[in-house]
Amino acid sequence: MFQHILLPTDGSDASLAAARSCMRFAAQIGARVTAVHVVPPLHLFTYEPVVTEQVHETYRRNRDARAQEFLVPIAQMAQEASVACNIMLAEADEPYEAIIRTARDQMCDLIVMASHGRKGVRAMLIGSQTQRVLTHSTIPVLVCR
């Protein structure tokens, strides 16, 4: 059975619902969970290196604080469910790539993700990271709606 679950989160209500389902499932099967939040890297071009360093540092602080807002509640859910859980931040231009890479690097044997249920034009414009993970991952993916 599954021993290590990757749980990506974007902080949405759908992600929190998936996290609750994931924790119940992990508790039932005795699996541990790694929760990950993916953020885009900062791409900044300037001729002033000092400005770049300051902007990057501010970006890192804000990024880390926001990630903690999303990840700490998941760690608390895990603790309440008596599930071993670690939290991490990943950086990538394409979140689905970071999710798959993190699952592989952390030796996860299942990815549990939320589906936002977007359809039609909205799905085409915004895209679906869940769909991309489903398409590209060799690791099983459980989608929570």
From TrEMBL:
InterPro entries found in the cross-reference section: Rossmann-like_a/b/a_fold, Universal_stress_UspA, UspA
Pfam families: Usp
Domain UspA: 1-145
Family per similarity comment: Belongs to the universal stress protein A family.
Protein name per the record: Universal stress protein
